């Protein structure tokens, strides 16, 4: 089925000017960018977005990193977009990511891993709504 997923290009990647290279990988794999915005999120916004991880030992590190520089928040649309996006990203830990994936190519560490993507339909809907109004999404 045609799905939408939430994608974020993280500060380690915007710092290295990899925005275009990463978006090209999504587009080449058949996903379409239907909403896009560059944001330098506040610590509070990062804490809200990642609230599901608030009891994890890496929560402080994660939210400080995510508010340390610009990110690009996007909605990607396509056939099985949620799973497809996760295949293109590769494993969270770049040392476990498959060849040809974004994280294998570009991620610096498990924390500074260049991209985020939703893991399920419910989280995709929540994450899209956190950053975008319905009228921002143009299919
Ligand atoms: P992401 O898909 O953005 O969702 C939560 C993030 O937490 C994850 O990618 C990682 O970047 C980060 N993360 C997971 N495990 C660790 C860890 N052990 N140390 C630091 N960051 C982590």
UniProtKB/TrEMBL annotation:
EC nos: 2.7.4.6
GO terms for cellular component: cytoplasm
Entry's localization field: Cytoplasm
Gene3D superfamilies reported in the protein's UniProt record: Nucleoside diphosphate kinase-like domain
Signal peptide: none
Alphabetical UniProt keywords: ATP-binding, Cytoplasm, Kinase, Magnesium, Metal-binding, Nucleotide metabolism, Nucleotide-binding, Phosphoprotein, Transferase
Catalytic residues as annotated in Swiss-Prot or TrEMBL: 116 (pros-phosphohistidine intermediate)
Start and end residues of each Nucleoside diphosphate kinase-like domain: 2-139
SUPFAM superfamilies: Nucleoside diphosphate kinase, NDK (SSF54919)
Broad class of the protein's primary localization: cytoplasm
Annotated InterPro entries: NDK-like_dom, NDK-like_dom_sf, Nucleoside_diP_kinase, Nucleoside_diP_kinase_AS
Binding residues for ATP: 10, 58, 86, 92, 103, 113
GO MF annotation, one: metal ion binding
Family: Belongs to the NDK family.
Protein name (record): Nucleoside diphosphate kinase
Lineage: Bacteria, Pseudomonadati, Pseudomonadota, Alphaproteobacteria, Hyphomicrobiales
Gene: ndk
């Amino acid at each position: 089925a045609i799905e939408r997923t939430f994608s974020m290009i993280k500060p380690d990647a915007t710092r290295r000017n990899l925005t275009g290279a990463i978006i090209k990988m999504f587009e080449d794999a058949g996903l379409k960018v239907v909403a896009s915005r560059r944001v330098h999120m506040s610590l509070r916004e990062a804490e809200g977005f990642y609230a599901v991880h608030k009891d994890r030992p890496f929560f402080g590190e994660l939210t400080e990193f995510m508010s340390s520089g610009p990110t690009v928040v996007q909605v990607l649309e396509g056939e099985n977009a949620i799973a497809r996006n996760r295949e293109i990203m590769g494993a969270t830990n770049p040392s476990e990511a498959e060849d040809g994936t974004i994280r294998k190519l570009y991620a610096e560490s498990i924390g500074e891993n260049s991209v985020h993507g939703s893991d399920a339909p419910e989280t995709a809907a929540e994450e899209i709504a956190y950053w975008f109004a319905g009228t921002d999404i143009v299919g």
